[in-house]
Design brief:
alpha+beta, Alpha-Beta Plaits, four-stranded antiparallel sheet, 30% helix
């Protein structure tokens, strides 16, 4: 064999060996649609069920009607005494509360309209139907507040915004 032919054969073998080694490195022939299905998550922990007793009302607490009114209108009186503290506890040991009675209407629609306007101004307003001397009135209230000074501040801003003369009442639950 001639030396030229030997060199060509050796060169072809070297190029083939390089192709076998380098082509897999340059090109990834793996299946791209193959998904790794092995999980690296730890096993689920064992959960032991715990039984919870149903809550029961203590025997010392009497059953009350849950539909009692928010407050008793006859017990709510104007707060005109400035000598008392604007906050604190009442005789029953409960926090003192204050309401602002904004207005009283004969028609419910007028009371609801004012109540909606007050809610738009971010006041906690509500209406209450009251019968006085066989006539039905619909009162608009704001509150309750725990601090009388905050109720007085609300009264001043409501009086200015709505041209009313609101009164501050004790909140009697």
């Amino acid at each position: 064999m001639s030396s030229g032919l030997n060199q060509r054969i050796v060169g072809a073998l070297v190029l083939g060996a390089l192709g076998v080694i380098i082509l897999p490195v340059l090109f990834d022939f793996a299946d791209p649609s193959r998904v790794d299905r092995s999980s690296k998550l730890p096993a689920a922990p064992e959960i032991i069920a715990v039984s919870v007793d149903k809550a029961q009302r203590p025997a010392a607490i009497a059953d009350q009607d849950l539909k009692t009114p928010l407050f008793d209108v006859e017990k709510s009186l104007p707060a005109t005494d400035d000598s008392e503290k604007p906050y604190g506890l009442n005789d029953q040991g409960l926090p003192k509360g204050w309401l602002v009675q904004v207005s009283s209407f004969a028609e419910q629609s007028s009371a609801e309209e004012l109540s909606d306007k007050l809610r738009e101004q971010n006041y906690r307003a509500f209406t209450k139907r009251v019968v006085i001397n066989d006539k039905t009135h619909h009162r608009v209230y704001v509150g309750p507040k725990i601090d009388k000074r905050r109720a007085a501040a609300d009264k001043a801003s409501i009086d200015k915004a709505f041209q009313t003369d609101a009164i501050i009442l004790h909140y009697v639950p």
